[in-house]
Design a protein that fits this description.
The complex is a heterodimer of chains A (426) and B (375). Chain A is mainly α and 426 residues long. Helices cover 67% and strands 2% of the residues of chain A. In chain A, α1 crosses α19, α10 runs antiparallel to α11 and α14 packs across α16. In chain B, strands 1, 2, 3, 4, 5, 6, 7, 8, 9 and 10 form a 10-stranded mixed β-sheet that branches. Classes of the chains: A mainly alpha (426), B alpha/beta (375).
Chain lengths: 426, 375
């Protein structure tokens, strides 16, 4: 009680409103807010740290690999320096000074066993480089001047203009080579060009991934909407049982479900056997439903269906049946009542389900790999190939970055058209 | 009392009828007690457990941890190396992967004669292993091959049987679906051989764009009739289901379909492609673990042990001195000799996987091949 010594009658003479302890109210308020903010920040700090360490940092690191190229300069610094004064378009080989620098670099690289790694790196630019570096190995370290003749003596490819053009082109610490490769282009002596028609694959695969993902999303919607409607409008008891039927496959291993589709869809499989047995098709013309796009669409629609049904269901659950009843009592027929009254209210669920299914589909790779054959594979199958088999992580990172950019772009477009606050999970 | 004695005696006799342990295994000094081995899982890993690690564990008490990651060993080892924490001690990989790991500096270079046992007649290990020593980091175990299996009950063939690898491309005489690997390697070679290219010119032709085009054109004649596999288990399954009439896969897989599952399938050995599979030691192991690995390898790659592995799976031992010791299958009791890819009767025409060539050109050829496949 004794602390209530502040002004009670209007503002003090200096015109500043003060808190109980005499500090200006503005400052004390700001301090309180700051404390509040700090406290909430501390509360989310563990989560933030977790996400940064396990999610943001690895993704950033992976994305950086798509342009990172420090290795060439680290492995052969003298050569990179010496090549700066060489004109790659001159049509003449670099001079002896470059070869001497290269020899010095090579001796060191051989000692650290990094010469073969460099060969692998350069092989992405020019096939044959990895073999050239491996083969040159010890013999190159024992060379005596003149080095130019010595290297060409080991392998005539050291005397090829292209070899040195590739090394010079791959010298800078950052490269756009991976991104170019990811859009079927390459940097040649005459600038950036598209690759020959028969080597182009990535743009085509990006397009196909988008197309198939849209088809899968639409199939999920067409199949999932009635089921969700049914679930939302049946008595609780029945809908709970049906819900288990939706969730059961959801809990089953992805591989098991995919393999089950193989058994069903293959030419000697259950569906074809049944069709032949009832005489709809004859034995010589069994349907090809797997190892192609059809297989991918069927299997992935099935696998992703719960991701469509669940958001739809939880939105439909909140739609009061009295609206439809009111519409009907005002003279709307069944279709009008559904289309004009019920359907617009379920749109947020469609939005949520469609985004979920589409984004999951666009990055899928196990199912297309198993049932997609050659016409049903996605861009992610190539990313997986470059991560685990060809070990071209730079290219994998570039493809991944493009895919990520694509998803974000589509998300933005979606937001502009549908509006992201129109998406509800329940 | 009597019963107890009998049981003890029985137990003792079981313990002593196990494989005869190599007498001259050197003592392991300053060695880790555990060994993390990476392999392929399935029947292949089982053959290693039976032939190598169980006897070794019995002798030394070493605890084995198997990790079935050989399929993605190269990528995982690279990631481990970048993270600076190598958790594997010994990794089973195919020859091309070993060359790759060695190039990347992820596998340790080894002196074969120093760490492996000589043959019983004193031939040094490097001579005994011969051609299979494809990389300074590679410690070979087996020779396996990629070859064709076909169904023996196809009515549309009117009793004809494929005898040459070129029958794969003959849709008139041998109609039906085929299975080929979803990779250019091997398919390109077979296609060119069947398109009139001489074996000696194979890789010179493949080095040119026209050569690859020629191979793809030949493969194009059966493209619509082909299912492209990515896992070695696919072809045996497709053959057993009757989905395909012929297909390529690893010879051990076909052995198991034919002999263990008794399916109406037979082997076509013509132009089988030889490959080696073996161990690599990850670079940068601490000394204790490295000592244990070396001690185990000395045991697991000796003449008898490599021959023992062939009792469990139909892959040929990589040591020349092991071949005469290959006996019968441990369960089926059939002679394993004729099922080895290295059996003279199966070696009429062979190709040895040209790792050097493929390591330089696979990225390029693969891009062309996949673009061709996708369209």
């Amino acid at each position: 009680m004794s602390s209530t010594t502040t002004t009670q009658t209007g503002l003090p003479s200096d015109g500043v409103m003060r808190a109980a302890d005499g500090t200006p109210l503005k400052r004390s308020l700001a301090r309180a807010l700051r404390r509040e903010k700090l406290r909430s920040f501390l509360l989310i700090l563990p989560l933030l740290a977790f996400i940064t360490i396990t999610f943001i940092a690895p993704i950033a690191d992976m994305l950086f690999r798509s342009v990172e190229n420090g290795m060439v300069e680290e492995t052969i610094p003298r050569t990179v320096e010496a090549l700066k004064s060489w004109d790659a378009t001159s049509g003449e080989l670099p001079d002896e000074a470059v070869f001497e620098a290269f020899h010095a670099d090579f001796v060191e690289a051989f000692k650290n066993k990094t010469h073969t790694r460099l060969g692998l790196r350069l092989n992405y630019e020019q096939p044959g480089m990895s073999g050239l570096f491996r083969k040159s190995g010890r013999r190159a370290t024992n060379l005596e001047p003149p080095y130019k003749e010595g290297f060409i003596d080991i392998d005539e490819d050291w005397g090829a203009l292209e070899t040195w053009q590739v090394i010079k082109r791959a010298s800078p610490p950052l490269t756009d080579g991976y991104f170019l490769a990811a859009v079927d282009a390459e940097r040649t002596a005459d600038g950036i060009q598209m690759k020959p028609e028969k080597e182009r694959i990535y743009l085509f695969l990006f397009w196909r991934t988008l197309f198939l993902s849209i088809v899968i999303t639409l199939s999920c919607l067409v199949l999932g909407y009635p089921i969700a409607y049914l679930l939302a409008n049946l008595p609780l008891r029945t809908s709970n049982v049906l819900m288990i039927l939706v969730l059961l496959p959801f809990w089953t291993s992805l591989l098991v479900r995919t393999s089950a589709w193989k058994v069903l869809l293959q030419q000697q499989g259950v569906i074809n056997d049944t069709l032949v047995w009832i005489g709809l098709i004859d034995d010589a013309h069994r349907l090809t439903m797997i190892n192609n796009q059809t297989g991918t669409i069927i299997a992935m629609t099935h696998i992703l269906l719960p991701f469509m049904i669940l958001p739809l269901f939880s939105v439909m659950k909140t739609i009061s049946p009295s609206y439809v009843r009111a519409a009907k009592s005002l003279g709307a027929n069944d279709w009008t009542a559904f289309w004009r009254v019920y359907f617009p209210q379920s749109v947020p669920g469609i939005g949520a389900g469609a985004i979920l299914v589409f984004i999951l589909a666009i990055g899928y790779y196990i199912t297309p790999e198993l049932v997609g054959g050659t016409s049903g594979i996605f861009i992610s199958n190539r990313i997986a190939y470059h991560i685990s088999t060809s070990l071209n992580w730079g290219l994998a990172a570039a493809l991944g970055a493009i895919l990520l950019g694509l998803v974000m772009l589509l998300f933005y477009v979606y937001d502009r058209i549908v509006g992201i606050d129109n998406v509800k999970l329940g | 009392m009597k019963l107890k004695h009998m049981l003890l005696a029985a137990a003792a006799s079981v313990a002593f009828t196990g494989p005869v342990i190599s007498e001259d295994l050197p003592e392991c000094e300053n060695c880790a007690d555990e060994l993390t081995v990476v392999s392929w899982g399935g029947a292949y890993q089982a053959s290693q457990v039976n032939a190598y690690s169980n006897p070794y564990a019995e002798m030394t008490g070493t605890k084995f941890i198997y990790d079935e990651s050989s399929n993605e060993a190269v990528a995982k080892l690279r990631a481990m190396n970048e993270a600076g924490n190598i958790t594997w001690d010994l990794v089973d990989v195919e020859g091309p992967d070993a060359v790759r790991l060695c190039d990347e500096g992820l596998a340790m270079e080894v002196d074969i004669d120093e760490i492996l046992a000589p043959a019983s007649d004193g031939t040094p290990a490097s001579e005994d292993f011969g051609e299979s020593l494809i990389s300074p980091c590679f410690i070979p175990q087996i020779v396996f091959s990629t070859t064709f299996g076909y169904r023996t009950d196809v009515e549309a063939w009117n009793g004809a049987v494929p005898t040459s690898v070129c029958d794969i491309f003959d849709l008139e005489k041998f109609p039906g679906k085929r299975a080929l690997e979803k990779r250019p390697k091997k398919n390109i070679e077979w296609a060119l051989l069947c398109d009139g290219v001489a074996k000696a010119d194979l890789y010179d032709v493949m080095e040119t764009d026209e050569g690859i085009d020629q191979a793809l054109a030949k493969l194009g004649t059966i493209k619509d009739e082909t299912i492209w596999w990515s896992a070695g288990a696919d072809t045996p399954q497709l053959l057993a289901d009757g989905e395909i009439v012929m297909g390529s896969t690893y010879n051990g897989r076909l052995f198991s379909v034919i002999e263990e599952q008794n399916q109406p399938v037979a082997m076509l050995w013509d132009y089988q492609v030889f490959d080696f599979d073996g161990w690599i030691i990850p670079a940068g192991l601490p000394e204790e673990r490295l000592n244990r690995v070396k001690n185990f390898l000395y045991f697991a790659t000796d003449t008898q042990r490599l021959a023992d592995q062939a009792k469990y799976i139909s892959y040929g031992p990589a040591r020349a001195s092991s071949a005469p010791l290959v006996g019968k299958h441990a369960e089926l009791g059939i002679e394993m000799g004729p099922h080895m890819p290295t059996d003279p009767a199966n070696m009429g025409n062979i190709i040895v996987n040209n790792i050097d060539w493929w390591s330089s050109y696979s990225d390029d050829v693969d891009a062309k091949f996949q673009a061709w496949l996708a369209k």
